Amino acid sequence: MNHPLPEAFQARIQQELFPGLELLHALDTPSPISVRFHPNKHHADLGVRSEVLWCESAVYLNERPQYVFDPLFHAGAYYPQEAGSMVLDAVLRQLHLPADAKVLDLCAAPGGKSTLIASFLENKGILVANEVIQQRARILKENLNKWGYSNTVVTNNDPADFQRLPQFFDLMVLDAPCSGEGMFRKDPAARDEWSEDNVRLCSGRQRRIVMDVWDALVPGGLLVYSTCTFNANENEDNVHWFMQELGAELIPLDLPAPIVQGRNGIGHYCIPGITETEGFFIAVLQKPNETLIRQRFTRKSEFRDQKDPLDCEKYVDLTESDVINWNEKLLVLPSVHVDSMLHVQAQMRLQKLGTMVGEISRKGIIPNEELALNPFLNCFAGRIEVTKEQALHFLRGDTFPLSGEHGFQLITFENEPLGWIKHIGNRFNNLYPKEWRIRKQF
């Protein structure tokens, strides 16, 4: 291989005998291919080899599909995700959380864990998915829009900004920026970039991030801390430091046998060669109980209830949702969480809030792509089923001969919505977002 494993990394594994010599061999073998299916959308036929033991609706594939040329991928029917990071699903199902938990995914892009958390919450509670880098925050927004839950917010903030939301979140998930030893298997360049100095640098950064957001966790709240590294500095040592400095308690976990316990019983590892993963560490800490600050939430003046929903009910099931007008854009939020979600918006830089139904025009609503891909809200009846070839042309932004009724219509493939067109007789206007369109030739 042109990019051998760093000598210092190899020496550490050989000397410590943890995570085990199997790791060194496994890092030079091909990465397993895994995806997680959306629980409420059509399951694509992808050539499943076996199930992922620790995550519901997750499987290993025989070979890597051409995702970009699969309309169901664009419909948010599944999400390609590294199997090790999916252990978050098994962890979440063991935690004692309120039924309407407020969850922060702090370093969330590109969205694998956020979409997993959204499925776990099942439209209950609130998920705030944050990414500090703006371009990555846009990718996060796109992936959450395609996954299609209305109890989600996407923010673009520094971790320290969450001090504006004291004692707000019941659960924080921090997949911390790390030295990336778990990337050695699929990204040879990561081997060249690794150094012991970078390990120490990452360890210090991870501590600062947790200290910056700790006040936003409710008393007794939970922090899920994870990395894709194998070293103690960024994993067990940091968890122990959080316990000492913050008085946090380590929460025991019961995970499937291929997942091994960390050094000194702290956290758990998915280790290549033992599990079919690229490598992952996870631990859960609980904040000490202390006085709870009672918060009052006030709405920002630019938001108002949409008293006249126009023809919203033609598009949206509003049984448990409210419609909010934001600068002539109609947003749908869960009724029980409107004030809390708008409180987050008032304090943070927003990329996404709930689900956008569409924009108000002189002739009614121009429906938005976010609504098309939300299987829980979208109740629009006008649908046109297309072939795979037609679906790919639609996803490229093309127009082509297509029979159908005049006006707005949903394009579907295998009964899954892909997006909107406006049919005008012998042709149609393609409303699929320009920034999402397929650019590769097929």
In short:
The model has no long low-confidence stretch (mean pLDDT 94). It is globular and about 75 Å long. It is α+β, with helices and mostly antiparallel strands and 442 residues long.
List the helices and strands and how they pair.
Elements: H1 7-16, H2 22-26, E1 34-37, E2 48-51, E3 58-61, H3 71-74, E4 78-80, H4 87-92, E5 102-105, H5 112-121, E6 126-130, H6 134-147, E7 152-155, E8 169-175, H7 188-193, H8 196-213, E9 217-227, H9 236-246, E10 249-250, E11 260-261, E12 268-270, E13 280-286, E14 303-305, H10 312-315, E15 321-326, E16 329-334, H11 338-347, E17 350-353, E18 355-361, E19 364-367, H12 369-372, E20 383-385, H13 388-395, E21 407-413, E22 416-423, E23 428-430
Parallel strand pairs: 5-6, 5-8, 6-7, 8-9, 20-21
Antiparallel strand pairs: 1-3, 1-4, 2-3, 7-17, 9-13, 10-13, 11-12, 12-13, 14-15, 15-16, 16-18, 18-19, 21-22, 22-23
List keywords for this structure.
Rossmann fold; 23 strands; Nuclear Transport Factor 2, Chain: A; five-stranded antiparallel sheet; 442 residues; alpha+beta; 13 helices; ten-stranded mixed sheet; single chain; 3 domains
